[in-house]
Amino acid sequence: MIVALLAVVLLIVGALHWYLWKRLVKDTTRTRRARRIGTALVVLLALVIPATLALSRTLPHSRQALVAWPGFLWLALMFYLLVTLLILEIPRLALRLWKRPAKVVAAAVDVVEAPAAPEEDVSESRRLFLGRSLAATAGVLSASAVGIGAYQALGPPNLKRVPIRLAKLPASMDGFRIALVSDIHLGPLLGRAHTERIVRMINGVEADLVAIVGDLVDGTVAELGPAAEPLQDLRARHGSFFVTGNHEYFSGYREWVDEVNSFGVRVLRNERLEIQGLDLAGVNDATGGGSGDAPDYAKALDGRDAARPVVLLAHQPVQAHEAAKRGVDLQLSGHTHGGQMVPFNLLVGLQQPVVAGLGKVGGTQVYVTRGAGFWGPPVRFGAPPDISVVELHGA
Questions:
Q1: Per the UniProt record, which residue ranges are transmembrane (predicted)?
Q2: pLDDT of residue 93
Q3: What residue ranges define each of the domains in the chain, with the CATH number in brackets?
Q4: Which of 127, 142, 185, 387 is the most buried (most CB within 10 A)?
């Protein structure tokens, strides 16, 4: 099974790099030496991706960044090169079609002129000019997207203030603020300083409640416990709460549940509690069933007082389909990263009912934060990270 999966990955990576070689090397070089150098570089870059995916899992945590930085940055650049080059196939085709009629007209005109350059040389020069022009355009656009995206990914998250109205909200809770953060993704590229910055930003808004809706880590407690430790400094009037995301189940969720609880951040595991006339509930991630830790909506939501509004913490927006069946007023989620790198947001929208911001599933409002970190490439283009301050008001 593993061998077959590896073969498929290598086949896909090879096919993508063959296309890049054709457009960036074959179409832009004239000499054999230049083509050989370009070919060797493309082969090397093709090997970087599977090597990064393998070594980032097997190397000691302290050394994973050595392969993660170059590997994931190339992955992002490769993605945008593919996107831009595929878009540029349209003008490439148009230019080729435009040249054909021009050749027919030139051949039909019987005029004796001064000796011209051989047709093969003219054709080769045009081919090189077209190939190099489109390759340069793709390179500049792709490098710009990755540069802007890396700046956004590594910089501080945006602080978003989001007013949401709940019909059942008691008048005494009008203006109740929930600091919502998700997808912090501590790992080889994001460490303790990342957590400390997030904690400072959250504490600065003086929220009534802090909600961390999953995907805190990409690694074990032994590797990342110190990086997550600043969460113990979170301050909110009614405390801080956490629900698991899918990445916790790749990282030893049992240990992480205990670790997060030890920071004074309460992990809601298919349960709810009342806070000042509002029910706060939390369910495990939708993927938890594969680890024997499935979300249990009945346990978390059934038997409550229907006169009180309920806010549900659930990592994935798609979980709102179950929440809507149980009359949840508001679900707070993450998971999507807002697509992280446009146009991935279009693909995410095929799986999740809300990609970012406020939406609705049935009668349930769903607010999705883009998250404060990144996964894979340290790039967020068109989907900057955020921490959201959800402010509740009566309808």
A1: 6-25, 37-55, 67-90, 134-154
A2: 85
A3: 2-152 (no CATH), 158-394 (3.60.21.10)
A4: 387
